[in-house]
Request: fold
Amino acid sequence: MKTSARRRVTKPMKLKHLLRYPSRIRTARSLLKRGGSEHSSARGVIGIDLYTEQLLFDCGRHLACLAATAQLAEYEIHLRCSKWLLAAIAHKPLGKSFLSLGNVRWLSPNQIFPGHAVVLSDVAEHHALRVHAGQHLIHMLIGCDVIPGTMVMPYPMHPRQISDLAVLQRDELRRQEKRGVFFAGNQKQRYGRSAMQDRFGVISRLEIVSTLQEAFSDRVCTERDNVSDGVIHLLDTSINPIALEDWVPTLSQHQFFVCCPGASQPMCHNVIEAMSVGVIPIIEYGDRFHPELRDGETCIAFHGRQGLVKAVERAAAMPAQDRQRISRNVYRYFDRNLDGIQFMKKVFQAGRSRSEACVSMPFHESNFFDPTQIAAVEFDAAPIDSADASAKQAA
Reply:
């Protein structure tokens, strides 16, 4: 295993990155010079030691989320990677956002993290080839499965929704009067793939939208108006986009949010943003949350097309006191389990106390690691059967 993993860590960059390198490395350096600086007031340093392109998926979104939440939690981010990988990050739209944040610095592979830093890496400690100053290394398990016994990073908001202003507005938006059922998101063809059912056992975004349109044709509205208890808003943001600054305030006006899956895996940032302001999720994949969402307590759960129709009918008939109770439960669940700022603080403390070897990051449609090896090597536990894990998700 050690030999194959080392080959994977040091494999050559893709040709497309080589061709883009001259312009992208200039972009990266310009962004870092403009944004990055050391802050004496920071709580500490979180190092991100990248050997691979794993965190570049989804436009570099999750790399940007790590830095944005760290900034709000008052931590510096020190990124250590090759110049080739740095240029690849600068090619990604949200990679640019990451590099431009004021708390981000870049270290070359032969530079060393500060001795007090907590280090996250995309390879296991026994495969990390670079020099460390004795820091405890936490292995980021990027994929779709959660390894038992690990910390689990909550699925984050979109990085452009992670800001001081969003935090300041949160309490007010939670008190906002809420009515009706709402979904807004991209409804392009890629959101209707059958793989969602085959791989994860949930119906796709487009199937959810068509089911609601057929079952509630007299109640569905595709425009942003008439927010009331009897209306189901289904907005296609690829046609009628909602401005960044209006997104969470718009969510907060509604009592229920229909949680349509993403394009390649169930979790999507919009359900996290909805829950942050107490909007109740109508959801088929509550088991993807950690801890799992509970029907009637932190969500309205359903399974399949008929279950979706019954869930919306149940939501419409729910007494106001029950809606308010569940809404409170939802935002309290967010505060305890989904708040990225609190999670970054936990990661930092776990690194300083050397209490965690890994953090599961179940954000992708497939694993970038082998679950059967992780459990055995890093936890001295019984290996996880990856086929059983996948079958459980699809059940």
